[in-house]
From TrEMBL:
Annotated Pfam families: RHH_1
Cross-referenced PANTHER family: BLL4998 PROTEIN (PTHR36215), RIBBON-HELIX-HELIX PROTEIN COPG DOMAIN-CONTAINING PROTEIN (PTHR36215:SF2)
GO biological process: one example: regulation of DNA-templated transcription
All residue ranges annotated as the Ribbon-helix-helix protein CopG domain in the record: 4-41
Entry superkingdom: Archaea
Name of protein: CopG family transcriptional regulator
Length: 64
């Protein structure tokens, strides 16, 4: 699995960390970030679909 590096504000990292660990929803930061990315992309796909911006192949080209 490829690795990436991102810079985020301290406040956002603290908020993320509240959801990670034994008492949190995620095992580690990576799991939390992956879940957040998936959820965001799903939401964006739903918005694009409502506005007929998704092609039939799921790409970013609209249907003609």
């Amino acid at each position: 699995m490829p690795k990436i590096s991102v810079e985020i504000p301290e406040e956002l990292l603290e908020d993320l960390d509240e959801h990670v660990g034994d008492d949190g929803k995620f095992v580690n930061r990576s799991d939390a970030v992956r879940a957040s990315i998936r959820k965001t992309l799903d939401i964006l796909d739903e918005i694009d679909e409502r506005h007929d911006r998704l092609g039939t192949d799921g790409g970013d080209e609209p249907d003609e």
